[in-house]
Every structure is written in structure tokens, then in C-alpha cells.
Design goal:
Helices cover 40% and strands 19% of the residues. With 144 residues, the protein is of the alpha+beta class. Helix 4 packs across helix 7. The longest helix is centred in the middle third of the chain and has 12 residues, at 85-96.
């Protein structure tokens, strides 16, 4: 699968206000918009022998990030699976029509969620962590 812009899957108002409706979206949509940060952390946990980092994108000059993903050796993992990082950044830049900044995330999940107004796993309608593990498992990493 080629990288796709996260913005293609933005949640509707009802998806933003009703966690059950958001949960019932297809996996790719769920992890593109609303749970990308959880997917990134789960990806890192699933491959402890690799130095997987967490990065995010934000609009240039903005404080808040809008898309979070895992990175390893020039590759990224998000709702689109594994893709070269330049491709992921380019498709999001093209879709948004704005310059984007990459941000290294160096805090843990709880602090990230607090800083960027993202949901912790227990704030979802059901447990998103197992769903994220299953999704990571369906995408072969580049080192295999």
C-alpha cells in the first residue's frame, strides 16, 4: 500500500462526538484519524529489538500535531503501513496544501496525550490497543 494522507480520513462531527461511531470505522480510517498515536506506540512496542521512534506532523508554525507515526531507519509506519518517510511527508503536504514540520516525540504516551489533547486508550469505546496490535501484525516491516 502506498502512503495516503491522514486528512483523507478525517472524522465527521458525529465521529468526533460519539466514540462508538468512531470505533465502527474501518481500521485504516480509525488509525488515520483519531488513533494514529496509539498505532505508533503499539508499533514500537511490537518491535522492541529495533530502535523505533515516534514522530508527528504539524502545520508549520503551529504547536499541535495532527498525525503521529512510528519511524525506523528512513521508514514510517502509520495507517498506510510501512512507507519511506519522504513519501509519507509528501502525500500529507500535498493533501493539506501547507508546509508541514516533522516533530520528534520524546515523551511517553500519557504525556504526549496531555500535551496534544489526544485520547488515552481507556478513553475509547473499546480497547484500541489490541486492534492496533492486530493492524501492525498485518503489515510486514521492511527488515523482513
Amino acid at each position: 500500500m502506498n502512503a495516503q494522507a491522514a486528512g483523507m480520513f478525517r472524522r465527521t462531527e458525529i465521529e468526533r462526538s460519539d466514540q462508538r461511531v468512531a470505533w465502527e470505522r474501518a481500521d485504516q480510517a480509525f488509525f488515520a484519524a483519531g488513533a494514529c498515536h496509539l498505532l505508533a506506540w503499539v508499533c514500537r512496542e511490537e518491535y522492541p529489538d529495533h530502535s523505533i521512534a515516534i514522530e508527528a506532523l504539524r502545520f508549520e508554525g503551529e504547536q499541535q500535531v495532527f498525525h503521529t507515526y512510528a519511524t525506523w531507519n528512513g521508514w514510517t509506519f502509520d495507517h498506510s503501513g510501512w512507507n519511506p518517510e519522504p513519501q509519507l511527508v509528501a502525500v500529507n503536504t500535498d493533501f493539506e496544501g501547507h508546509r508541514l514540520e516533522r516533530v520528534a516525540i520524546t515523551v511517553d504516551l500519557a504525556e504526549f496525550c496531555e500535551q496534544h489533547y489526544h485520547r488515552m486508550p481507556h478513553h475509547y469505546w473499546r480497547d484500541p490497543l489490541q486492534r492496533a496490535r492486530d493492524y501492525v501484525g498485518r503489515h510486514q516491516p521492511p527488515w523482513l
